[in-house]
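Note to self: keep these together.
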Amino acid sequence: MDTFELILIFILSIFQSIFGVGLLVFGTPAFLLIGYSFFDVINILLPFSITISLLQIIFSKEHNRDFQTKLIIYCMPSLILSLIFLINYQNKINFIILMSVTIIVFSLVNLLKDKNKIIFNNNTGKIKISLVLLGFIHGLTNLGGSFLTLIATNMSTKKVSIRYNIASGYLILGIVQLLFVNLFHKSLDLYILYYLFIPVICFYISQRFYKSINNEYFYKILNIVILIYGFYIISNNI
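Structure:
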C-alpha cells in the first residue's frame, strides 16, 4: 500500500473507533475506486476492522450474548451463501452502484423516526429475519455496517450499547468472511499484518472524542455522514 492508502486507513480507523463503523462502509467503495478487486479489499480492510472491533469489545462494559448467539445462528449461513455467489459471479456485478444504493437506502431508513416499524423491532421473528438479511447484504457488498447500525440503534439509544453491538457484529462477520475467503478463494498478503499497529493507535487516540459525543446525536451524526458519502459515490459513477 502507498502512503495515501495508509493515511486513508488511519482516518477511517479513527472514525470506526468512535462510531463502530467506517473502515468497511467508507473504505470498501474507496479502495474499489482506487482499483482493487472486491476480494482484495476484503483482505486489506478486514484485519484492521477486526482489530478495532476486538478492542472495542475488550474495553466495553456492555455484554449481549443473546445478540451474538442469534447473529451466529441466523446471519452466518446467509453470509457464506452470498460469498459463494460472489466468488462465481463477481465479474458481472457493478459493486460501486450496488454499494452506493445500499448505503443510501439504509442511511435514510436509519434517520426515520419510525424506522423500527419498517425493518426491525424487538419481535423475535423480525430479529431473525433482519439477521438473515444482514448476512446477505454484508456478503454481497461488505457494507452490512449500514444495516447493522440500523439494528443496533433500534436495540438501544445508548451510544455504549450501540457501539458494542456494532463491534460484536462486525467482529463475528469479519472473522467468518476472512476465513472463508482465504480458505476458498484468495489468500491474504501477510504484509498487511505489519500495519496492524495503526488501528491500535487510532483506537486509543479516538477515545476522548468518543466520550465527548452526546447520546442523542451519536447515531444521527453517523448516519448523516454515511448518507452524504453514499450520494457522493453514486453521483460520481452514474
